[in-house]
């Protein structure tokens, strides 16, 4: 049963954090951020927040720094909205899964293009014979 409760709290925190960041957080460093996942510890004292950021490495670092500096504000807002007795400590970390997916997509397109070029070259060899 504890797993179901932490799952529900994780989803609520993710939803509320996303809303707070979009509407209420005025830090210019935090731009183009998406809360991709929240994992709450079983005692609800910690929430590991994975953040996906669009931009270069500098922008990603700035966004994480901005979120960490706004953690107190975000924590207070989440507790008020979700209605928890204790505010979990928000621990932000960069989620690079989107970048990994884009890299895999680029590699697959490159392989597909090379196969097409190879196939076209094979067809020319067969026709000239």
Describe this structure in words.
- The structure is a single chain.
- By secondary structure, this protein is α+β, with helices and mostly antiparallel strands.
- The chain folds into two domains: 2-95, GMP Synthetase, Chain A, domain 3 (2-Layer Sandwich), CATH 3.30.300; 97-129.
- It has four helices and three strands.
- The chain has a three-stranded mixed beta sheet.
- A hairpin with a 5-residue loop joins strand 1 (33-40) and strand 2 (46-53).
- Helix 1 crosses helix 3.
- The radius of gyration is 22 Å and the shape is elongated.
- The N and C termini lie far apart (71 Å).
- The model has no long low-confidence stretch (mean pLDDT 88).
CATH homology superfamily name of the largest domain: K homology (KH) domain
Describe the biggest sheet? 3 strands, mixed
How do the strands line up in the largest sheet?
Answer: 1-2-3
What is the CATH topology assignment of the largest domain?
Answer: GMP Synthetase, Chain A, domain 3
Helical residues, percent: 55-70%
C-alpha end-to-end distance: 71 Å
Cα Rg:
22 Å
Shape: elongated
Text of the CATH class of the largest domain = Alpha Beta
- Would you report the number of β strands? 3
**Elements, N to C (H/E):** HEEHHEH
Mean pLDDT: 88
Count of DSSP-assigned helices: 4
Low-confidence parts: none
């Amino acid at each position: 049963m504890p797993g179901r409760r932490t799952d529900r709290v994780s989803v609520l925190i993710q939803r509320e954090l996303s809303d707070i960041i979009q509407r209420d957080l005025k830090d210019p460093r935090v731009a183009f951020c998406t809360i991709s996942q929240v994992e709450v510890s079983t005692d609800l004292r910690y929430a590991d927040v994975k953040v996906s950021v669009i931009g270069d490495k500098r922008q990603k670092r700035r966004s994480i720094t901005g979120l960490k500096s706004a953690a107190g504000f975000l924590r207070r807002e989440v507790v008020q909205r979700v209605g928890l007795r204790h505010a979990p400590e928000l621990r932000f970390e960069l989620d690079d899964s989107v970048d990994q997916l884009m890299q895999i997509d680029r590699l697959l397109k490159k392989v597909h293009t090379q196969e097409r070029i190879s196939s076209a070259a094979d067809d020319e060899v067969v026709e000239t014979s």
